[in-house]
Amino acid sequence: MKKIGFLSFGHWTPSPQSQARSAADVLLQSIDLAVEAEHLGMDGAYFRVHHFAQQLASPFPLLAAVGAKTRKIEIGTAVIDMRYENPHYMAEDAGAADLISGGRLQLGISRGSPEQVIDGWRYFGYRPIEGEDDADMGRRHAEEFLELLRGKGFAQPNPRPMFTNPPGLLRLEPYSAGLRDRIWWGSASNATAAWAAKLGMNLQTSTLKFDETGEPLHIQQAAQIRAFRGAWKEAGHTRTPRISVSRSIFALIDDRDRGYFGRGSQEEDKIGFLDEDTRAIFGRSYAAEPDILIEQLRKDEAIAEADTLLLTIPNQLGVSYNAHVIEAILTMVAPALGWR
Predict the structure, then answer these.
(1) Pick the residue with more confidence: 194 or 279?
(2) C-alpha span between 280 and 273 (Å, rounded)
(3) Is the pLDDT of residue 125 over 70?
(4) Which pLDDT band, with edges at 50, 70 and 90, does 231 fall under?
(5) pLDDT tens-digit series, residues 170-183
(6) If we measure between CA atoms, which residue out of 103, 36, 20 comes closest to residue 63?
C-alpha cells in the first residue's frame, strides 16, 4: 500500500494553448484540483515553490485555502527553498495553515535548486554568515525552523504587555502540535538524506538527484533511501519516518493521452549539470498503456522502497485533464501494483 499524491509546479503562461494563463488561474485551479483529487481518493496535494518565475511561489495562502476546501487529503510542498525563508515568520504561517487544515500539512523543505535569478535570496534580505555558502544557509534556516516548531518558549515577555501573557518565556503563535513530525527534507544526495534523518525529518527524493554512482536514477534513489533509514535508526528516533519519491507517470488510455505523452521522448534518464561542478541525473518519464506501465513500474526500485508516491502533473492542461490523469493511475495502475 502506498499514499499517492499529485505534485504541481504551478506553471502559467499567456499562451492560448495553456489552460492556466495567469497566477490567478493557477491558484484557483490548484484549489479545484485538490478538491477533485480528494473526491477521487487521492491521498495528497503537493505544490512546488519557485521564486522570480511564472510559477507557484508563496505557498501558505494556497495551502490554507486548500485546507479550508478539503477534509481528508494531505496538503504539502515539495519543496520550499529555505534560503529564502524567515524561520520565525514561516513557523507562524505554517502553524496557521496546519490548524486550518486540521493537522493535514506535510511540509517539504530544502536548500533549494538553481533559480531564475542570480542569488535570488539576497533580494529577500538574506546573506550567508562567515564560513557558509548558500546551501549551508538554507540548512541553518531549516534547523531554526525545526526548533521553533517544538513550541518551546524562548522570548522574554514584556513586563507591561498590552494583553496578559501566560507564565514563562513566550513561543510563536499559533502553535500546531504535531507539525514538527510532518516536516520533510528534499534531498538530492545520500549525505543530506542522512543529515535529514539525524534531525528527524521525513525524506523527499524527486526526479532529480546528484549523480553519485553513474547508475540509473531509481537505483541511486533506492540506495539513498536505505542510507536515510540507516541514519534514522542510528539516531534512535522512535517513530517511523515517511519517504516519498516523485515520478512523471501517464497511462495512455485515449487519444488525448497519446497525443500529449505517447511520443516516447523521455524514456531514459538524462545527465546534466546544475552548476559547473554538480553533475545530476534527471529521471525518465513513464508513459504507456496501463499493462505496459504496470510492468515498467514494478522495476522501479525507489518507488518500491518508498511509502509515498508523488505524481508530477501537467497543470497547464487544466483541472479536468489532470483529474483524468489521476483517476487513470488510481484505478488502472495502482491496484495491479498493490498500491491500493
Answers:
(1) 194
(2) 6
(3) yes
(4) very high
(5) 999 999 999 999 99
(6) 103
Question: CA 167 to CA 213: how far, in whole Å?
Answer: 54
- Tens-place pLDDT, residues 268-321: 899 888 877 789 999 999 999 999 999 999 999 999 999 999 999 999 999 999
C-alpha cell of residue 69: 476546501
Contact 294, 228 (CB under 8 A): no
Position 112 scores a pLDDT of: 85
184-208 b/e with 16+ CB inside 10 Å = b? bbbbbbbebbbbbbebbbbbbbbbb
- SS3 per-residue string spanning the chain: CCEEEEEECCCCCCCCCCCCCCHHHHHHHHHHHHHHHHHHCCCEEEECCCCCCCCCCCHHHHHHHHHHHCCCCEEEEEEEEHHHCCHHHHHHHHHHHHHHHCCCEEEEEECCCCCCCCCHHHHHCCCCCCCCCHHHHHHHHHHHHHHHCCCCCCECCCCCCCCCCCCCCECCCCCCCCHHHHEEEECCCHHHHHHHHHCCCEEEECCEEECCCCCCHHHHHHHHHHHHHHHHHHHCCCCCCCEEEEEEEEECCCHHHHHHHCCCCCCCCEEEECCCCCEEEECCEEEECHHHHHHHHHCCHHHHHCCEEEEECCHHHCHHHHHHHHHHHHHHHCHHHCCC
Strand order, beta sheet including 279-282: 208-210, 279-282, 270-273
What are the backbone angles phi and psi of residue 202, rounded to the nearest 5°?
-75, 170
Phi (first) and psi of residue 233, to 5 degrees: -65, -45
pLDDT digit string, tens, across residues 36-79: 999 999 999 999 999 999 999 999 999 999 999 999 999 999 99
**What would the grid cell of residue 150 be?**
517544538
The candidate with the shortest Cα–Cα distance to 190, out of 216, 204, 210, 206, is 210
